[in-house]
Amino acid sequence: MQIIAKHTDERVLPLAGKAIIKRNAARAIALDGDEILLMYTARYDDYSLPGGGMDEGETPEQAMIRELEEETGAQHIRDIRPFGCFEEYRPWYRDGADVMHMLSYCFYCQVDRELGTPTFEHYEIHNGMRPVWVSIGYAIAHNKAVMANSEKAGQSLVRETMLLEMIASQRLEQRHATA
């Protein structure tokens, strides 16, 4: 899958000589009209794409489906197609590493609007995560306000906001192409 964007947190530079851990993740882009299925996290007051780390032996597409079902209760996941891969380097404070190098494989898909019951992990419950259908523009504006005004912004917020902006831009281009 093609790398569509990169972000390096300035706190990890220079990378030379640092212990780097690699993590592969998959994320879902489920759209319904002008709304997108996102995860709202109360602890950080932000919106993010459903998704998470890939398990051993999983393909990115398999991981996306599993994470989407677990986090949102999404049903009838279909019409899966690649969007692109987001590459990032950010601080890491565990496992004896200084930096996490993450590749997030993102996929468009369709799901039923009505969601089933999510199967949250303990930390997701603790962080107050819940699936929501929200307008892309609102989510972008909200996340940008959190980045500008909050000390509790999560590390993934830059990635998530950049991805949402890219999705919105691509949708706008598609609308102009069909107009």
TrEMBL record:
Keywords linked to the UniProt accession: Hydrolase, Plasmid
InterPro entries assigned to the protein according to its UniProt record, in alphabetical order: Nudix_hydrolase (IPR020476), NUDIX_hydrolase-like_dom_sf (IPR015797), NUDIX_hydrolase_CS (IPR020084), NUDIX_hydrolase_dom (IPR000086)
Entries under CDD domains matching the protein: NUDIX_Hydrolase
Pfam families referenced in this protein's UniProt entry, alphabetically: NUDIX
Domain spans labelled Nudix hydrolase: 21-160
Nuclease keyword on record: no
Source taxon at top rank: Bacteria
Coiled coil segments of this chain: none
Cofactors named for this entry: Mg(2+)
A GO MF label: hydrolase activity
Family the entry assigns: Belongs to the Nudix hydrolase family.
Name by which UniProt lists this protein: NUDIX hydrolase
